[in-house]
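Illustration: Hydrophobic surface binding protein A-domain-containing protein.
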Amino acid sequence: MNFHILFALFLTLTLHCVSALSINDVLETFQQIGAHITSLDKSVKDYEPGLEDKLQIERQHVTVELGLIQATKNIYATEPFDDKDSKTVTNAATQMQPAFETYLHDVVDKRPGFREANLADRIRKHIQEFHDRCHALSYELRNKVVLDDRKVIEDSAKEIDQEFNRALQAYS
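Result:
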């Protein structure tokens, strides 16, 4: 009987330690997403139809999406932020917005080349996935930041939604 109690206690403590992420984990993930979306945008701008470019762009889309998934998981696994950490996380999250907006603008500009290379449907799918993943991330952030920062996150999400919708419309 004591073994079962000790095992349950050990399991509970282990799960708590694994799920308690620091603000640095969250910030590092945001930095990685920012770097990945910037790299993807550069590839989009430099895109010339060809197999190698197709594969590189596909890989970079997946990398950004995985980063968004990881960021959402990291936010979910953290405790609610105090005022200072809330401001820091909110600032880091909103700093990704211009990179996504630039990517969305550039991917719309490159639409004719992507259509020619039969990549338009894949690009549209990635844009939709980014949109969905950003919504999930925004939702988790709003649940962890303080009230004032929640409004900042909501406003940022509304602004980026317009850009996502414009890009999705262009690829429809």
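Reading the tokens back as a structure: The mean pLDDT is 89.
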